[in-house]
Structure formats: C-alpha cells, structure tokens
C-alpha cells in the first residue's frame, strides 16, 4: 500500500456527508452513572455491560490520587506489572496479564503511540494533568484493533476542560510540578510541567552505576474540541510533550506530538458513520557517554467505521483502518511499513444472554496477511450475577529493532527473517453486581503465545524459538457510595517460557492492591493506597517482594482553593524495581489547587 492509499482513506474519513441527526464520536464517552467505555468494542457500552475485563481511571480518581505520573496510577490496576529503571522519567515496561510490554496496544485519543524501533510506548512523557480518563481492557483485542493487542489495550483520553484551574506542587527530590487548564465545553487547553532533581537511578550493583542524581524535565500540552458541525459531530485533539531524562552515564532528550481529527454522523436510515485521520511523531536523542544516537518514529493513520442496529439490542459494526509507520535510528536502519485492516463485529443482548463476535483481516506490507477473531458470551444468573466466557486470537508484527538492529558488539542483533508472534487465549469470568455500589469480579485466563521473539543462541540474536503459556486469575472488588469508595484487586499469574521451562522475567506471581477514600461534607477527602508485589525473576537473580503504602488528602480552603498532600512509601521500603536499580524512598508532596467555583 502506498502513501496515497492512506491519504484517500483520510480524505474519505474526514469528508463523510450523509443524513440529518448528529452522532457522538465513539472516542467521546460520557459519564452518567455507570462509566461508559469505547475501547473494548470500539463502540459505546457501560463497564458492567462489557464482556471484556475492563476498568476505568476517571479524572476524579486522578485528582484524588495526586500521582506524579501515569505509572503510579497503573500500578494499582488489576493484572498490570510495572518494571521501572530508576526514578522519574526512567525507562519503564508495562506488562499486562504477563505478556510482554510490546504486547499492549497503547492509544492516546485513538492514536497509536508505540515507537517504531522498540514497539513499546514511553509512558513517562504523559503528565496526568492533561488526562481525562484511562480505559484498560485486559485480554486480546486484535480482532477490533489489529496488531499489538495481544495482552490488552490501554487508551488514554486527554482533557476537554470546562472552566479554568491551576495546580502547583512540591516534593522530595526537589520535585516541582505546575499545571493549568482552561475550557468552555467547546474547546479546552491544558499545560503541565515537571522538573525533578531525582536520585541515582542505579545502585552499586548496577552495570553503569554513578552516584550522582538523575533528573527529569517534562513539558506537556494538549488541546481538544468537540462540537456539532453540518448535522454531525466534529472532534479533534492535539498533543505535545518534550523534555529530557538523565540516567547513570547518560541523558536522553525527547519530543513527542500528535494530531487527530474525526467526524461522525447518523444517516436518515439506521447507519452511524465515523471517519478519522491522525499524525504522530516521536523523536528521541540519547547520549550514553560514548556516542549519540537518534531514534525517530513517524506514523500516519486513518480509519472509517460504521454501526447500525439490526435487531433489538444488537448492533453490527464494520470498519477499515490503515496506517504507515517509518522508523529511523542513527543509520542503523531506516525502514517503513504499512498495514491495512478490515474488521466487523456483532454485539448484542437478549433477555439473560449477551454476546460479542469479531473478525478482522490485516495485510501487513512486510509480513503479509493475518486473520484474527474474538468470541464472547455472557449469561445472567438472576439479576445480579453473570457468567461469561471468551476466546480470541491475536498477533504482533516484529518491531524494526528486532528486525534490523546491529546490536551491541555483535550481540542482541536483529533478525530480518523473523515471523510475527501469534496467540490464542481463553477466559472465564464471574461478576456480581451488588446493591449500593458494590461489585465483585473473578476472571481466570490462559494465553498461549507462539513464535515468541527472544534473544537466544551464542550471539543472542532475535529469533522465533520460544513458546509462552500464561495462566492467571484476577479477583477484584469495588464499592462507591456518597462518602466512601474502595477499589481492590488480587492477581495471580504463572507466566512460563515453555521452550526453556523458565519464568518470564519481571512478572510477579502475586500482586495485589487496595485504595480507600473517605469524602467529608465540605468535599475534603482522605485516602490510602497499599500495593503488594511478590517475588519476580530478573536477569540472574530473584527480586524479593515489597509492599508500598501511600497516603493522600485534600482540604478545601474556599474561593476555589484546595490544599492537597501525598505521602509516598510511608514505611520507607527499600526495594529494587529492577535488578541493580533504585526506587524512591519515603517522599512527601504538598500542593495547592485552584479551580473556578
């Protein structure tokens, strides 16, 4: 597929003209009662109606948590492991249900944001101040989204502010944070900055230990608009992030930005159409003390999807996606790849039964065709209990680094003969929808991954030699009432490399968390978080378990002002997030927030 193919799709998507009634964009969900999500099926549905394992981090959750970055929010979520190399800005892997970090499809306002080289996303560049909500879908979603959605999908939505506000915070390690927002419901702007002196990312056992502090700077900006236009709904978003991060023996500068537009409209008949187009760029320059390298990603994407009711509460969806990505890394490789996918799905319910079915065909310009599918069914056992089952197939094309990297000293080199990774998974779920805001969920799953890419052999070259089997169980509980709210979960997983009969690295067998908040009559609040991470294997060692306790509070002062505070690692736990790397010790933050009354 040539560039002109994507250009035609983009034009078609942006210029759809049909019908009379307006339709809200599938990327613009509302919150009235049970949260509405759009990521699981690419259409609106409530969390309780979704047959996929879904959770949502709302704007209210973000403000109460006062987390300095997205990773502190994600570590509380079911089935997610965080492997962070040092302090703020450090390179981080996010594992979902035991799969690799590049097996998680990450979207920001519908835009794919993985790096062309590594195939993973740089989580550190997104400031929570510009985020409206985060939707997390566990389990394969390739039948709706295409490549990369092996372990799940995480979609971040930037803020469309209504009113004005600002926040200033200061904490240990000379951590300074400033943010502001303004909006009128039609258009909104957000800006956030952070500068922290940090601490040494590595300890004396690290391979490049340097005792100096490793700092981090980041500036984030976003703008969004959503409004009626020509009988339909027009939405667009723009985002920018730039800064630098220090690490032992080096420093990286980054620049990341994206632009997306969409238009949706309902015809005079039963169809609702939406077209979209987006552009994404990511530049990373790294100085490791010996050489300077540049890694660039350029991506354009476009899509067109349609939805219509076909009987009762059943809807039929179909769509087409196309994208082209270019990757350039300091002369090591300069490659491009295009992909076009056609998909369809049927979602519905009748009486006690509900169902989701999807089928997708992708054609990768480098690896040929791939067919993926997903089937799920639910059965209501009375008013408050639901039993569900699902099965899905997913795939992931190798990243440019896995294909073409020259490696280091002849080792960890890429392999142009790699095949895509594929997976087949199954899941059983039992959900209880209790009275008074209570909810309980249990999921058990198995994911078998074939042609897993790993560095193996005497030269540690990337080859398709391994099979992985990941089994797990997740138990979650939630409670939300007027003054109290609680979220808790417990995850057990067994992530095995079946070829070598060994555990997959950096995944904990046991992980659990609980967050509890109390709101007072004046809208002040007091909350606590507890996170436990079990033992996990790393290169040549077994890292011990650790438990973190965090406290947070907010108290209104009047005139739109709120005094906030957060205490991280209350017990001053000394632990290694990765072998040879440090983590922050006990840290206190104080903040002042203002918003228009």
UniProtKB/TrEMBL annotation:
<feature type="domain" description="TonB-dependent receptor-like beta-barrel">
    <location>
        <begin position="171"/>
        <end position="570"/>
    </location>
</feature>
<keyword id="KW-0732">Signal</keyword>
<keyword id="KW-1134">Transmembrane beta strand</keyword>
<comment type="similarity">
    <text>Belongs to the TonB-dependent receptor family.</text>
</comment>
<dbReference type="InterPro" id="IPR036942">
    <property type="entry name" value="Beta-barrel_TonB_sf"/>
</dbReference>
<keyword id="KW-0798">TonB box</keyword>
<keyword id="KW-0813">Transport</keyword>
<dbReference type="InterPro" id="IPR039426">
    <property type="entry name" value="TonB-dep_rcpt-like"/>
</dbReference>
<dbReference type="GO" id="GO:0006811">
    <property type="term" value="P:monoatomic ion transport"/>
</dbReference>
<keyword id="KW-0812">Transmembrane</keyword>
<keyword id="KW-0406">Ion transport</keyword>
<dbReference type="GO" id="GO:0009279">
    <property type="term" value="C:cell outer membrane"/>
</dbReference>
<dbReference type="InterPro" id="IPR037066">
    <property type="entry name" value="Plug_dom_sf"/>
</dbReference>
<dbReference type="InterPro" id="IPR000531">
    <property type="entry name" value="Beta-barrel_TonB"/>
</dbReference>
<feature type="signal peptide">
    <location>
        <begin position="1"/>
        <end position="23"/>
    </location>
</feature>
<feature type="domain" description="TonB-dependent receptor plug">
    <location>
        <begin position="48"/>
        <end position="153"/>
    </location>
</feature>
<protein>
    <submittedName>
        <fullName>TonB-dependent receptor</fullName>
    </submittedName>
</protein>
<keyword id="KW-0472">Membrane</keyword>
<dbReference type="InterPro" id="IPR012910">
    <property type="entry name" value="Plug_dom"/>
</dbReference>
<dbReference type="Pfam" id="PF00593">
    <property type="entry name" value="TonB_dep_Rec_b-barrel"/>
</dbReference>
<dbReference type="GO" id="GO:0015889">
    <property type="term" value="P:cobalamin transport"/>
</dbReference>
<dbReference type="Pfam" id="PF07715">
    <property type="entry name" value="Plug"/>
</dbReference>
<keyword id="KW-0998">Cell outer membrane</keyword>
<keyword id="KW-0675">Receptor</keyword>
